[in-house]
């Protein structure tokens, strides 16, 4: 059942216009507060020192090490989402022409700029690398 | 990558950058790629670094927007939402990638070594500034040393200067008076070498000794009647004081006053300080006409 309109139950505020399901409820911090507790013993791929270094360069002084892990997780997810999209592009290009049925497309996927560029374009990031003549 | 030799400062930055590259490579491996183009890895590394920096900057801005200094979870939440990041999927992602490789080791501490151009000791950070902020600049950038010399305050030198200045002033003034007024000359033929100011004979020669000088008149006037509305000229006062004299004597008195007023500063100075630069300030006379 959808949460009642305008109510503040379980930390999710539903605007009155969301009853028809067009607008998703506004995100609240409750799910992440629990998640933050789970981050106590979780080590993301990016070391805390590196993330902390770049955050310090931006002026962000982290009081809680779990905040740093949260940010590094978010950045990781960002990159891996793009990587997955690029993989989809790579797979689509490979099997589009309907090549060999016996074995599936070779497992060796190489990330190239031709796959990365359309994946990034969906995120609004336009890269134009020049062709080097060497 | 360039094979040029890098300074220790560059190595400090490069070490972390290389860690990010390793992280990106591990993420790509986890996604299913076997290999990748160098340009693609560089692109993703740059994006990762800039993403982290942007989160930090934006979270700090949101935090300061609400008059706080310590960013909290809410600030980061709002930052991620603003950057188009779907926050709800984050726990799911964390759980999914439990099996991922945690290869990147922490970077060893390589502080930025000082360059050879440092001059002087930098001021250390006050306690309220965190350690990761850059250092204060070299002291020569903000220390101001005056370039003028201290004025000479030696008594002897000052007295000499005052005396020579006074003598110059007197000489210039007398020569000016000689040029513009009547002159008498000592020598029969040569008139211009040593001009003397022509002495005007007084009808009453002892009058100058009896009457006070202009400076004294001013001081008397200021101390006696400081609240009078109309301040008459001091030249008029001797006239009033000598009203019992005869008429031509009045004229002489006025002439005398004018004569002594020009050199009266010298006579009256015996009462006050010799040095014209150390004299007290004379306020200008305010004439209010009724």
Automatic annotation (TrEMBL), chain A:
Keyword annotations from UniProtKB, A to Z: Initiation factor, Nucleus, Protein biosynthesis, Transcription, Transcription regulation
Location in the cell: Nucleus
GO biological process, one term: transcription initiation at RNA polymerase II promoter
Main location: nucleus
Pfam family name, one: TAF10
CDD domains given in the database record: HFD_TAF10
GO cellular component, one term: transcription factor TFIID complex
GO molecular function annotations of the record: promoter-specific chromatin binding; RNA polymerase II general transcription initiation factor activity; translation initiation factor activity
Family membership noted in the UniProt record: Belongs to the TAF10 family.
Name of this protein: Transcription initiation factor TFIID subunit 10
Organism: Nipponia nippon
UniProtKB/TrEMBL annotation, chain B:
Xref: SUPFAM superfamilies: Histone-fold
Ranges for domain Bromodomain associated: 12-89
Biased composition (Polar residues): 254-266
GO terms classed as biological process: cell differentiation; transcription initiation at RNA polymerase II promoter
Annotated segments matching region Disordered: 218-290
Pfam families associated with the record: Bromo_TP, TAF8_C
Biased composition regions of type Basic residues, renumbered to the chain: 280-290
Residue ranges, compositional bias (Acidic residues): 219-233
Main location: cytoplasm
Keywords: Cytoplasm, Developmental protein, Differentiation, Initiation factor, Nucleus, Protein biosynthesis, Transcription, Transcription regulation
Subcellular location as annotated: Cytoplasm; Nucleus
Family: Belongs to the TAF8 family.
Full protein name: Transcription initiation factor TFIID subunit 8
